[in-house]
Amino acid sequence: MKGLFLIEPLVALYSFASFLVLPLVQQYVYRRLRQELTNTTYPVSANASRCGPSNTSSHHEVSAVELPRGLDLFDLVSVVTLELDKFSQ
């Protein structure tokens, strides 16, 4: 019975930590895909000009189509990997 009291807090802590980490992973993947697809850096400051010469319409078009597709692919691979891990145990 003591093992049960030890496992429940560990599962709760693991779930809470996973809940906090997932948005950070998604932001990291979004940033890396944006850098790879548009060859531009992510604007860090709010004072960055959105009409500068580095921001052309072609970057926005590529970003609007390819970036969500890449993020969806990452999410799909993540879910399939987790599901396959469940079946392998």
TrEMBL record:
<feature type="transmembrane region" description="Helical">
    <location>
        <begin position="6"/>
        <end position="25"/>
    </location>
</feature>
<protein>
    <submittedName>
        <fullName>Solute carrier family 46 member 3</fullName>
    </submittedName>
</protein>
<keyword id="KW-0812">Transmembrane</keyword>
<keyword id="KW-1133">Transmembrane helix</keyword>
<keyword id="KW-0472">Membrane</keyword>
